[in-house]
Write a structure and sequence with these properties.
This protein is mainly α. It has one domain. The chain has 7 helices and no strands. Helix 2 packs antiparallel against helix 6, helix 4 packs antiparallel against helix 5 and helix 6 runs antiparallel to helix 7. The longest helix has 58 residues. The protein is rod-shaped and about 95 Å long. The N and C termini lie far apart (82 Å). The N terminus is likely disordered. This is Tol-Pal system protein TolQ.
């Protein structure tokens, strides 16, 4: 019997609870990898969009023209572009209703902070699942292992003469649960740590932009 068939045989002959544990770990692993690939695409796009917008913003173009260019598109801006759009829109609106520079700047900053908070939520979406998968999967696998080994030793107690051949399949199927737990946990932990760092760096860029844009608007007020 080849290795693949042996592995499938061990899984198919495992107890119902151990099979349930394996199924849970498989689902966790599949969903984790889905998040990993999706979040990778999102972060690459977010960094690219931030670079492109910063090039436009610091190229010397008028803010009115930049705002009109963004709002002329069928879809609203996201990331740094979205923060600028929300802030400049509020700035123009407040200037029409008030001459108090401090009030206008405070209102503009408040709207940009709200937009920044929404962008943070979007960037951090699904990351908690990776953290949870990385921390709990080994224990779920360990539970399946303990249960499988316990059943193996219980079966040994019912026979007069125990042999290694009798206990080996049960222990092997139990250890598969541990391996699956590690297989689900390791990529999730690595991805969570990497993506969390990238998200923090992006949020820092957004936050710096809010401060820089506020300073530009303050100078325009003066």
């Amino acid at each position: 019997m080849n290795a693949d068939l042996s592995l499938m045989a061990l899984i198919s002959e495992a107890s119902l609870l151990v099979q349930l544990v394996m199924l849970i770990l498989l689902l966790i692993s599949v969903y984790s990898w889905t998040i990993i690939f999706k979040k990778r695409t999102e972060l690459v796009a977010a960094k690219r969009d931030a670079d492109l917008f910063e090039d436009k913003f610091w190229s010397g173009n008028e803010l009115n023209r930049l705002y009109e260019d963004i709002t002329s598109r069928p879809h609203s801006g996201r990331g740094m572009e979205g923060i600028f759009e929300a802030g400049f829109k509020e700035f123009v609106r407040l200037k029409k209703t008030s001459t108090d520079s401090a009030y206008i700047l405070e209102g503009t900053q408040r709207v940009m902070r709200i937009s920044l908070s929404r962008e943070m939520d979007e960037l951090e979406l699904s990351l908690p699942f990776l953290a949870t998968a990385g921390s709990t999967s080994p224990y779920i696998g360990l539970f399946g292992t303990v249960w499988g080994i316990m059943n193996s030793f219980r079966a040994l107690g019912e026979v007069q003469q125990a042999t290694l051949a009798m206990v080996a399949p049960g222990i092997a199927e139990a250890l598969i649960a541990t391996a699956m737990g590690l297989f689900a946990a390791i990529p999730a932990v690595v991805a969570y740590n990497r993506y969390s760092n990238e998200v923090e760096r992006l949020i820092s860029r957004y936050d710096n932009f809010v401060e820089e844009f506020s300073s530009i608007l303050q100078r325009q007020q003066g």
